[in-house]
Amino acid sequence: MTNDWNISALDMPRFIELAVPCRWQTALSSLPRVHALCEGDVSVDPGLQCDWSMLAQTRGNGPRAQNWLHLQAGLTLTQRCQRCLEPMAVALAVDRWFRFVADEATALAEDDACEEDLLAMSSEFDALNLLEDELLLAMPLIISHSSCQPPPSKALGDDLPHPFAALAGLKLPKP
Q1: Following DSSP, what letter does each residue of 65-102 receive, concatenated?
Q2: pLDDT attached to residue 95
Q3: Tell me, what's the pLDDT at 151?
Q4: pTM, whole model, 2 decimals?
Q5: Burial per residue of 53-68, b for 16 or more beta-carbon CB atoms within 10 angstroms, e otherwise
Q6: Number of compact structural domains in the chain
Q7: Residue 29: which domain range?
Q8: Is residue 93 part of a domain?
Q9: CA distance linking residue 85 with residue 90, whole number of Å
Q10: How many CB atoms lie within 10 A of CB 78?
């Protein structure tokens, strides 16, 4: 279902109360921290969209009730392989659950004692910022094709003298 929610200032108590899954498409240009990690000389489609959805729900009853948020997202970026330096597609996928607590202080106090990720309840919750944070966390640490060769060694500057080669002459002879 598409919607008219303001994703930068989402009324989270109301969103949880409705408990209806919502889907969005957000342009990569609206995710500046993710966009910045794309190589400048790699062509980026200006119409590139991140498809994502959220579902909020309350689990339990009465004073033990807990509010949860499920975030799912998918985005494919073009980045440079760190081995061959050629462009490659990098698929990012997010599928995370978060539990809401009353405020930031409660989240900090409970964070070490619980396994789930905690978020502070807000009537102006920035879902777009959460999406961008999770996409950044989903990025691989090393971007490389599954099978590729590094460029020829001269392209890497192996023909230059080794910076510590002069130290070899300073070694004391072995007795």
Answers
A1: -EEEEEEEEEEEEEEE-TTT--EEEEEEEEEEEEEEES
A2: 97
A3: 58
A4: 0.78
A5: ebbbeeeeeeeeeebb
A6: 1
A7: 12-170
A8: yes
A9: 14
A10: 15
Domain-embedded: residue 99: yes
Indicate whether 120 belongs to any domain. yes
Task: Single out the residue of 58, 60, 80 nearest to residue 69, CA to CA.
Answer: 58
Residue 5 lies in a domain: no
State how far the Cα of 17 lies from the Cα of 45, in Å rounded to an integer. 37
Given a contact cutoff of 8 angstroms between Cβ atoms, the answer to whether 127 and 54 are in contact is yes
H or E stretch including 110? helix 104-111
Residue 85 has pLDDT above 60, yes or no: yes
pLDDT in tens, 21-62: 999 999 998 999 999 888 765 555 667 899 999 999 999 888
Query: What gap in Å lies between CA 99 and CA 69, rounded to an integer?
Result: 6
Strand segments (E) across 16-175: 22-27, 49-59, 66-80, 87-101, 117-120
Looking at residue 160, the DSSP 8-state letter turns out to be S
Instruction: Please say whether the beta carbons of 116 and 100 come within 8 A.
Output: no
